[in-house]
Structures are given as C-alpha cells and as structure tokens.
Prior knowledge:
Layout: H1 4-9, H2 11-20, H3 38-42, E1 63-67, H4 69-83, H5 87-91, E2 100-103, E3 108-110, H6 113-123, E4 133-140, E5 144-151, E6 161-170, E7 173-181, H7 183-186, H8 188-192, H9 216-230, H10 234-238, E8 241-249, E9 254-257, H11 259-269, E10 280-287, E11 291-298, E12 305-312, E13 318-325, H12 332-340
Amino acid sequence: xxxxxxxxxxxxxxxxxxxxxxxxxxxxxxxxxxxxxxxxxxxxxxxxxxxxxxxxxxxxxxxxxxxxxxxxxxxxxxxxxxxxxxxxxxxxxxxxxxxxxxxxxxxxxxxxxxxxxxxxxxxxxxxxxxxxxxxxxxxxxxxxxxxxxxxxxxxxxxxxxxxxxxxxxxxxxxxxxxxxxxxxxxxxxxxxxxxxxxxxxxxxxxxxxxxxxxxxxxxxxxxxxxxxxxxxxxxxxxxxxxxxxxxxxxxxxxxxxxxxxxxxxxxxxxxxxxxxxxxxxxxxxxxxxxxxxxxxxxxxxxxxxxxxxxxxxxxxxxxxxxxxxxxxxxxxxxxxxxxxxxxxx
Length: 345
C-alpha cells in the first residue's frame, strides 16, 4: 500500500496530467501473448478480478525472437494486469523503492512509485471500453529491454500511438521506463495541448539510477555504431550491418535494406538525422547479446532525444535498426528531405 504523504506531495503534476488528458482517457492495455510463452506466462497468474471492465484479448503476435523467455513473460503479464484494470496487480511490476516513468515526447515525469500509483488510480476507472495498449516487439532480457507497443485510437486521444519503451529492471521489477513516440503520428493539434514547453522537460531521464544494465556485446555494438554516426562515417556504420539488414527511421517513414543502400543513405542523410553528428551522445544502453538498443541525446538541432532499437544476428551484426524520435519537432520539409535522401540513383 502507498503512503498518504506521497498523495499530497505531487498534486501539481497530477493536476497537469488530469487537465491535459484528452477526453478523460489515458493509458490502458490489453494483453497479447507471444508464441511460445503463452502457457508459461499464464500458469502462475491470478485470475482477473470480476470487477474488470474488459477481459484480456489473447493473440500470439508479439515478436520475441530477440528477447529472453523470462522478459517476454514478465512484460506480457504486465500488459495483462493493465488490461484487466488491476491497479494493485499493475503496480506490483514496479519497484517501490525506486521507480520512474517518463514520457519523452510530452515531457511528463512520474518520479516515484507513489506518483505512478496515483496516476493509474486516477485514470484506470476512466479507460474507454475496448481500448487497447499492446506489445508488438520485445528486445532484451530481465536486466533491461526495449518494448515496441501500440496504443489504439481512443485510448489516449483520438489517434493511435506507436511507441518504444526503454525498460530497466531490478530483481524482476521495473525501476525505470521511458516512452518515445512520434508526435506527428498523434496529430500536431492533439500534441500541442499536452506537450510541456522544452524548458520544463526533465533535466535528465534518471538513467544514472539504473547504471549499466546492458550486455557487453550490446554496449560494444552501440559504441561502434554511435561513434560512426557521430563522425558521419556511413561506411564504418554500414560495416556493422548484416547482409539483409533493415534500417528503419519511423518519423520519416523510410525502410532501407542491405548495407550498401544503408551506407548510401547514411552518407547522404547524416547531416539531417537527429542521432548522427558531432554533438550526439548515448544516454543509456539496453538489452542483451541479441536485442536492445540505446537512448540518444543531441546537443544541436531541433530534436534533442530519441531511441534506436537494435536486433543482432548470431555474428553480432545488426539485422534490424529502428529509430524513433519526435517528428513534430522538425518542419515538413525536413522530413521530406530525409525521405529524399533514400532515393537511389
């Protein structure tokens, strides 16, 4: 149970979140079970309370090919509890001693277990019938992971959201989660009513509280990749990719296949990509030897932060890269320029 002092100490932030929510609705989830973990994920789970407004929907469509079975089960169970609007069950996945939840696009921060408890306690009763938040792809292990997930339209405003969450664990419990998403996909008008001014964003994303939770392999790959991108060295970056690797940049809606094409794109677009250039840096690395990624920072340019998901093959080469950042921070012509750089001649 949470203490009463915490309820009084975060009134301003809770009021902001309450007033900002579109249509009185916010985070909700249904459960989607990945193939191969369905029975294991449910064997020890308690039955959903009879008072729940909706039953979890089961579909074996989550890509867990680059995640350990343990983290796949843990995150699926987490979505199941949220799906059931089970406040206590949901909060049981977060570490009470130290937990942080940050929305990197809106600038919202829930800086403790108690604040997050209050947030869910306020909104769970208002979640609309049939809304859903479900995992699509999970990368990593129970030390740290990156989960791609979708919020359906009507859950959090009138548009769907496609997000990537950086998740750190301690003894199986979430200690830090930071969600990244493209504000343009949400709609610029919808975003404007929710997003904090840039100078009110958290000064840091509490990465220092979780330390180095990624494997040595993932840290090495990220070091080489981020270093090559920092130097605008497309050739060096391309050497890190597998023969049939896919490079995805979500806000610019591009998908490029193969190291040769990836190299051409990086050489042409390095001056425009927010995760490339001399003033970029790695904020935090996540994942294991086969899946994870890194949160990045950029001191120059209009996009100060984002996340890069990485899948590695058996030879520790990048087989898939997915970059996600807030496209609302750049004008239309910047996105068109990024897409134009992908045209091969």
